[in-house]
């Protein structure tokens, strides 16, 4: 992550199933998976497009292994593997059915292992900051949020009934103990206001309003050098968010979604940490444009706390959205 305002104590550890992993606060985990975690989406076959190449050790089934692609059990195993690497109880991470909307919903308190279906939305908020949250992408922007709690907000109460720390100085200097969130920001979602809606709901749920009280990690996504679009689409996008205006390395119109997201978030007083990695250029990540249908990686946030919950039984995995 390129970051000149990293919270004290944050570390990167690109190992195992993760391309990036940070610990920006007490017990707080922020991470983005790589292809080594496998395909984490049930709605994607895991089979690369005809003529595309697969990398060994990516954890996904290719056309020569498994016929129709990833079995649902393989996706379940991949999700459990990521949870085990983070120390999250199996099946406890919450996902969404992503539909390229600007809709934000609160966490239901039920993970993919027990929820009958993932809700249709493109951002998910944990008011207590204790729910493990995931967002799926394969070129669109995965944005992960953590926050300091407003001094006016009451302390978060966990499912064990105990109050958590709140306000500056509780458990450390300005700890990130407030609401957390994840958002899927494709072109449509970014222009329709998914990031503004996420920040607004976080503040309603108790995040601080001072600059930097909310931190955002913009994960790997297709870059402005690679995201080719029609000229009219570039004009429409840059008219709304000027920072998105871009040109591909081969000289055609493009949109720079990461730059646009950073501009939007900074205008809202959010401290931004932005990955320089392009999904289309980097084979360590799934890319819908490079290999349609091959898989999805995820951005995650969760807080490791005693008494957070136990592993649910295996259940229905629900459904998820269509594109990166």
Account of the protein in words:
This protein is an alpha+beta fold. The chain has one domain (18-220, 264-303): CNF1/YfiH-like putative cysteine hydrolases, CATH 3.60.140. It has helices spanning 72-86, 187-192, 194-204, 231-240, 257-267; strands spanning 18-25, 28-33, 104-106, 123-126, 133-137, 141-147, 180-185, 214-218, 245-247, 253-255, 271-274, 297-303. Strands 3-4-7-6-8-11 form a 6-stranded mixed sheet. Strands 1-2-12-5 form a 4-stranded antiparallel sheet, with no helix packed on it. The longest helix has 15 residues, at 72-86. The chain is globular, with a radius of gyration of 19 Å. The chain starts with 17 loop residues before the first strand and ends in a 21-residue tail after the last strand. It holds the Pfam family Cu-oxidase_4. Residues 45-81, 151-178, 300-324 are annotated as: Disordered.
Brief summary of the model shown:
With 324 residues, the protein is of the alpha+beta class. It has helices at 72-86, 187-192, 194-204, 231-240, 257-267; strands at 18-25, 28-33, 104-106, 123-126, 133-137, 141-147, 180-185, 214-218, 245-247, 253-255, 271-274, 297-303. Strands 3-4-7-6-8-11 form a 6-stranded mixed sheet. A 4-stranded antiparallel sheet has the order 1-2-12-5, with no helix packed on it. Strands 9-10 form a two-stranded antiparallel ribbon.
How is the topology of this model organized?
Blueprint lengths: L17 E8 L2 E6 L38 H15 L17 E3 L16 E4 L6 E5 L3 E7 L32 E6 L1 H6 L1 H11 L9 E5 L12 H10 L4 E3 L5 E3 L1 H11 L3 E4 L22 E7 L21
Parallel strand pairs: 3-4, 8-11
Antiparallel strand pairs: 1-2, 2-12, 4-7, 5-12, 6-7, 6-8, 9-10
Protein name: Polyphenol oxidase family protein
Pfam family, one: Cu-oxidase_4
Family: Belongs to the purine nucleoside phosphorylase YfiH/LACC1 family.
């Amino acid at each position: 992550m390129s970051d000149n305002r990293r919270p004290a104590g944050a570390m990167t550890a690109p190992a195992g199933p993760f391309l990036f992993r940070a610990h920006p606060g007490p017990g707080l985990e922020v991470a983005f998976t790589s292809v080594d975690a496998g395909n984490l989406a049930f709605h994607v076959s895991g089979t690369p497009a005809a003529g595309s190449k697969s990398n060994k050790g990516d954890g996904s089934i290719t056309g020569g292994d498994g016929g129709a692609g990833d079995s649902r059990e393989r996706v379940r195993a991949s999700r459990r593997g990521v949870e085990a690497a983070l120390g999250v109880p199996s099946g406890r991470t919450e996902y969404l059915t992503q539909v390229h909307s600007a809709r934000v919903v609160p966490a239901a308190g039920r993970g993919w292992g027990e929820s009958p279906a993932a809700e249709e939305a493109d951002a998910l908020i944990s008011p207590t900051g204790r729910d493990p949250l995931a967002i799926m992408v394969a070129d669109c922007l995965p944005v992960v949020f953590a926050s300091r709690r407003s001094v006016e907000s009451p302390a978060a109460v966990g499912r064990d009934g105990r109050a958590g720390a709140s306000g500056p100085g509780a458990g450390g200097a300005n700890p990130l103990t407030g609401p957390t969130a994840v958002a899927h920001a494709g072109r449509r979602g970014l222009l329709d206001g998914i990031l503004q809606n996420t920040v607004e709901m976080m503040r309603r749920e108790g995040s601080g309003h001072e600059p930097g009280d909310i931190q955002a990690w913009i994960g790997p996504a297709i870059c402005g050098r690679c995201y080719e679009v029609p000229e009219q689409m570039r004009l429409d996008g840059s008219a709304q968010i000027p920072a998105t205006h871009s040109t591909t390395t081969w000289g055609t119109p493009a949109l720079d979604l990461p730059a646009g997201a950073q501009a939007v978030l900074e205008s809202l007083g959010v401290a931004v940490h932005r990955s320089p990695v392009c999904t289309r250029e980097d084979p360590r990540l799934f890319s819908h444009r490079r290999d349609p249908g091959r898989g999805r990686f995820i951005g995650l946030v969760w807080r490791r706390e005693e008494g957070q919950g136990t592993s649910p039984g295996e259940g229905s995995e629900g459904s998820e959205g269509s594109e990166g």
